[in-house]
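Database export, one record per block. Field names are fixed; values are copied verbatim from the stored entry.
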Amino acid sequence: MDFSRLIPLVAVSWLVVLSGCDLLMFDEAEDDQLDVVDEHEQLWQDQGITDYRVTYGQQIGGGVEIDTFHVFVSEQTVDSVETSASRDELIVDTVDSFFEHIRGRIGDDNVLNLSINFQDDIGYPTTFEALLDEGADERIETFEIVEDESEGE
């Protein structure tokens, strides 16, 4: 096994633990993992945020390149995406799709290790890492969510 792939995961996990975000690790039972995801998704939905801009950074595979995506959401639907990468490479777009992606990876036989962090007050995923057995590891980090309060005016 190539342990060098685990070094970034350990480093990020320690940073998140120290930052005070809720942390979900792969060694929890699948039902427990899903319960944690459900709790945070409910917290996110309770905020009633339907119009927002979210900035994601994502990395696929073992490369060092991190693609940044600015996703503009209106009424829970993607309005536009700004990125220098191809939009087809975007793993998630809305926060809701981020939760769906996480659920899809929990219990996935191709996942060797999974680490998910959530924002404490609002509930959205802040960091997601999946080490996959085929080497197409995924890392998604939410850099910023800004609510668009002009929609209702």
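Remark 1: The chain is about 25% helix and 35% strand.
Remark 2: The chain has one domain: 3-147.
End of record.
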